[in-house]
Amino acid sequence: MKPIFAALFVALLAASAATDTRAQALPTTTVDTIAAVVNEDVILRSEVDLAVANISRQLQTQNPGQLPPRDVLERQVLERLILMRLQVERAESSGIRISDQELQQAIGTVASQNKMTVDELRQRLAADGLDYNEFASNLRDEVTVQRLRQRYVQSSVQVSEGEVDQMLASKDIGGDELRLANIQINVAEGATPSEIETAKNKIDEVKAMVERGEIDFRSAAIRYSGAQNALDGGDIGWRTMDAVPPVYVSMLKTMTPGQITEPVRGPSGFQIVQLVEVRKPQAQKVTQYKAQDILVAVTDLVPAEVARLKIQALRDRIVAGEDFAKVATEASDDVQTRAAGGDMGWFTAEAWGSAVGSQVQQLADGELSPVFQSDVGFHLIKRNGMREQDVTEENRRNQAREIIGQRKSEEAYERFLRQMRAEAYVDSRLGGA
Questions:
Q1: End-to-end Cα separation, the chain, in angstroms
Q2: Are residues 364 and 224 located together in one domain of the fold?
Q3: Which of 165, 221, 347, 375 is deepest in the core (most CB within 10 A)?
Q4: Is there a domain that residue 272 lies in?
């Protein structure tokens, strides 16, 4: 049976062993020990073992026979656990809490993304030998960390209009999409020349091993990379060339899938990047509708039945021949469209809410809807047109802004993690008593 989530679930399993796992009974022949002390908290050996078992099962399914040695996998998993523990600790000390309701919404989202109900998700987890409470606890930590990142990193990233103008002027936004993966050999701040040379030799050695076919890139990332995505096989995901750091662009432009860049020294160490796949971007087209509307709002003074009867009477007038725009101007409660005779302009189906969107999609051009209700009152819609709109050019500026913001956010968060890790008290005891 295939794993449920691929990247998301692997990340959750590797990122955090659930708090519940600390209370799970260990075999009677095993004495649980401390794997690491993290500030005033501890990570138990049982948590590492459970996370290693989970990630091993996932990796074995994806790359049979390519598991790294146990000690390497333990080191990668422990570092992920340490960073997750530090982030959750920082979030909680900053007042970030994920309520039970928010957690249930997140679980529902994961289930929906995998085309399941929550009950089916529970069943699938059980079939894969995974504990639901563990999954829920991991997901809570993941959402907590996302909230931390939004508060302290993404919210502080500013993109100026000048930066957007510069990107638009210097290159085309879009183009082919690249799926990338990376391997990083970390270099500590203040490293000696000897330590830097050792790291450079190591990345050269790893690159040569992959190119000779002694190990595939994904397995090499799991075994050797010090990057946060090591347990994901170094997967970076799909990027346009615009979203790739400039130092790699010239190399990637001349590469074919499977090839690897030369090592590049960055803020965290030496890195190589593999071009995994290339694909043409999907067309940026949306369906838009042009319509007019009339709203009779439900208020404390206008109960639902009164509002329904009023708008039905307005519909009867239009059906009898009165002009829609005239009736809308006289009687609609929609302050955004009333002065324009109910004209809503061109819009996507979801722009005015699901109730309006559902109706406008069912109508033919020139057709008048039946009276229908939304959460603000009763509506009447007349659809006047539909078109497929190419929004590629309209999206170029937003895309440039998102690319710059994403790049800044990733760099800022990497600095945030390094600083938090450096300031923390961490005593790793793997392999020790």
A1: 37
A2: no
A3: 221
A4: yes
Residues 32 and 68 in one domain: yes
Q: What is the CATH number of the domain that holds 217?
A: 3.10.50.40
What pTM, to 2 d.p., does this model score?
A: 0.50
Q: How many domains does the chain have?
A: 3
Domain that holds residue 61: 7-155
Please check whether residue 384 is in contact with residue 341, taking contact to mean a CB–CB distance below 8 angstroms: no
Task: Name the domain boundary from 355, 373, 390.
Answer: 390
Q: What is the rounded average pLDDT of the residues 68-96?
A: 90
The residues pairing with 179 across neighbouring beta strands, listed in sequence order, are: 238, 277
The rounded distance, in Å, linking the Cα atoms of 294 and 289 is: 16
Residue 295 and residue 206 share a domain: no
* Residue 227: DSSP 8-state: S
216 within 8 A of 66, measured Cβ to Cβ? yes
Same structural domain, 16 and 148: yes
Tens digit of each residue's pLDDT (9 = 90 or more) over 243-282: 788 889 889 989 999 999 999 998 889 999 999 999 887 6
Domain endpoint, select from 261, 280, 299? 280
Residues 123 and 223 in one domain: no
- Cβ distance 140 to 98 under 8 Å? yes
| pLDDT band at 28; cut points 50, 70, 90 | very low
How far is CA 346 from each of CA 85, 332, 360, rounded to the nearest angstrom?
48, 19, 12
Verify that 113 and 15 share a domain, yes or no.
Answer: yes
With contact defined as beta carbons under 8 Å apart, do 272 and 263 qualify?
yes
**Which is nearest to 175 in space by CA: 75, 251, 243?**
243
Residue 292 confidence class, pLDDT cut points 50, 70, 90? very high
Q: Measure the CA–CA gap between 57 and 216, rounded to whole angstroms.
A: 18
Give backbone dihedrals phi and psi of 275, rounded to 5 degrees, phi first.
-85, 110
- Rounded to whole angstroms, the Cα distance separating 250 from 240 reads 13
Sign of the alpha-carbon dihedral angle for 92, 47, 418, 145: negative
